[in-house]
Amino acid sequence: MKKTNENSTNINKFISSTGICSRREAEKFILDGKVTINGKPAQLGNRIFEGDIVKVNGQSLKAKPKTLYIAYNKPVGIVCTTDSKERNNIVNAIGHPERLFPIGRLDKPSQGLIFLTNDGDIVNKILRAGNNHEKEYVVTVDKPITPEFIQKMSNGIPILGTTTKKCLVEMVNKTTFKIILTQGLNRQIRRMCEYLNYEVTKLKRTRIMNVHLERLAEGAWRELTDDEMSLINEMTAASSKTEEASKNVQKKTPPKKKFIPKNTDKRFQPKRKKRR
C-alpha cells in the first residue's frame, strides 16, 4: 500500500489514542526526545503508518483496537459466556479475531438476536433496566393461547419477588405470541409463562432497540451499521451507566472509634486496691 496521509495518523494523536497521555503531553515527550519511530527519534508532525513501531521511553505502543459492535443470531445450544471452560461459549461460536463479550444474554435453549462488543461503556448503558430499552421476542408455547393469557402477561406477572412491568403482548397464531419487554429479569418470559401454566417450546429474540434480526442467518453475525450505532448512541445518551442500586441512599457506616493506645508504663497505671 502506498503511504499517504489518508492512511496515516499524526504522531501526537497516535500516542494519545493509546491512552497513556494527552496530545499535549505527547508533544512534550517528542520534544524531550523520548519518542522513536522505527528506532529513529520522532519529530513533531511525523505521521504513523500501519506497521510502524512507536516507542515512548523505550516501551512499544499499540493503538487501541477498533471499537466493534456485532449483531449475532444465536442458535439454540450456544451459551452466552466468555468462559473457555464452556465448550459451546458464544465467543468460540462466533470466532471473531477480536476479543468480544456479549451485551446481556439469551438462555441456552433460546435463540435470536444478541449484541457483542469490546466497548464496556455501551454495555452498561444498554443493560440497565431503568433505561427502558425495548427487546422484542416471538414465543411459542405448548398449548392454545387465550385472551386471558394475553391480558395477564401484558399487565404483569409476579415472579422473582417482584411483578413484571406492563408490556405489549400480541397473539401471532394459536400457540405463538409476540412480546416486547423493557426488563431483563432472569428467564423472565419462561417464568411468566410457567406462572400461567404454559411451557415455552421456542423463544426467539427478533429485535433489540432499533436493530432487527431480519434476514441474518442462524449462527451468522454482522457489524452494526453507522446509522444503527448513531441511533443507539442517541437512545442511550441519557442512560445511566451505573447499577440502579447505586441510586439508593447508601447506608451510613458508623464512625470509627478512636484508637486510644493502652498505657503500658506501670508508673502511670492506676493502683489497684488490695483486697482485705
TrEMBL record:
Keyword Transferase: no
Record InterPro entries: PsdUridine_s_RsuA/RluB/E/F_cat, PsdUridine_synth_cat_dom_sf, PsdUridine_synth_RsuA/RluA, PsdUridine_synth_RsuA/RluB/E/F, PsdUridine_synth_RsuA/RluB_CS, RsuA_PseudoU_synthase, S4_RNA-bd, S4_RNA-bd_sf
Positions of the UniProt region annotated as Disordered: 235-276
Keywords, alphabetical: Isomerase, RNA-binding
One record GO biological process: enzyme-directed rRNA pseudouridine synthesis
Top-rank lineage group of the source organism: Bacteria
Enzymatic reactions: uridine(2604) in 23S rRNA = pseudouridine(2604) in 23S rRNA; uridine(35) in tRNA(Tyr) = pseudouridine(35) in tRNA(Tyr)
Composition bias, Basic residues: 249-260
Start and end residues of each RNA-binding S4 domain: 9-71
SMART domains the record matches: S4
Molecular functions (GO terms): 23S rRNA pseudouridine(2604) synthase activity; RNA binding
CDD domains xref list: PseudoU_synth_RluF, S4
E.C. number: 5.4.99.-
Annotated family: Belongs to the pseudouridine synthase RsuA family.
PANTHER family: PSEUDOURIDINE SYNTHASE FAMILY PROTEIN-RELATED, RNA-BINDING S4 DOMAIN-CONTAINING PROTEIN
Protein name in the entry: Pseudouridine synthase
Organism: Lutibacter agarilyticus
